[in-house]
């Protein structure tokens, strides 16, 4: 049933603003990184590892948390705006099944956005090559590791934002939470209290200097996201079709 619901949700978001944002938000990061390097590079070979790190830093610190807030708000906001929650729940499905299907869809959007980021940054490197820059060793970056860390460690953010956008009709609320929480990443993420701040897990995993820091951030992200999902799903099953 979850799979069928997911298929239905995917059909509903075709040509949607959420799908457009999945492509545009990473593109903004890639374009920004491209022009920063183009403007600041003077002489000598380009440090492509630093280029990749700079793009992933902008993505993890700022754009990814905001994209998650925007995407979950749009995915659930369609139902609020069109008053189709109760219509959906007149079908032979439960609120928990619908909640989980929406959650899986949000996760797929995060995966798609991360893929789009790495693809667009790679494309920008190819453009640098066409402009005459040396692209030697430009693609020796560990894409798989960074992709997995960015995806897995962002799951607690997805759970929080999905829950808020499910419960609150106004899209301003989840966006406000996303903006405020993102503002705290720079400060809290660089302190010893990052373990208590799920928004800091992505950059801690990607930029951590200690060998085990990525493992710790990933483990925390999985545990926190799992607990949040269980609690939220249980709550939805109890409350049924009540929405604010």
TrEMBL record:
Spans through the membrane: 16-38, 58-77, 98-131, 143-164, 171-189, 213-236
Pfam families in alphabetical order: ABC2_membrane_4
Name of the protein this chain belongs to: ABC transporter permease
Keywords of this entry: Membrane, Transmembrane, Transmembrane helix
Domain of life the protein comes from: Bacteria
């Amino acid at each position: 049933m979850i799979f069928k619901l997911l298929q239905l949700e995917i059909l509903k978001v075709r040509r949607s603003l959420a799908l457009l944002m999945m492509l545009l938000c990473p593109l903004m990061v890639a374009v920004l990184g491209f022009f920063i390097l183009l403007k600041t590079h003077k002489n000598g070979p380009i440090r492509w590892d630093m280029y990749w790190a700079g793009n992933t830093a902008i993505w993890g610190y700022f754009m990814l948390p905001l994209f998650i807030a925007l995407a979950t708000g749009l995915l659930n906001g369609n139902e609020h705006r069109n008053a189709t929650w109760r219509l959906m729940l007149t079908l032979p499905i439960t609120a928990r099944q619908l909640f989980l299907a929406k959650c899986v869809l949000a996760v797929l959007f995060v995966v798609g956005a991360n893929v789009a980021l790495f693809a667009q940054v790679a494309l920008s490197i190819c453009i640098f090559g066409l402009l005459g820059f040396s692209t030697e060793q430009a693609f020796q970056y560990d894409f798989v590791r960074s992709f997995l860390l960015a995806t897995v460690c962002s799951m607690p953010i997805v759970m929080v934002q999905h829950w808020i956008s499910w419960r609150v009709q106004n899209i301003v609320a989840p966006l406000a939470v996303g903006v405020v929480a993102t503002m705290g990443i720079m400060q809290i993420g660089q302190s010893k209290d990052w373990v208590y701040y799920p928004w800091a897990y992505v950059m801690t995993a990607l930029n951590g200097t200690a060998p085990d820091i990525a493992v710790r951030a990933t483990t925390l992200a999985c545990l926190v996201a799992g607990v949040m999902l269980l609690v939220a799903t249980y709550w939805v099953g109890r409350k049924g079709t009540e929405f604010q």
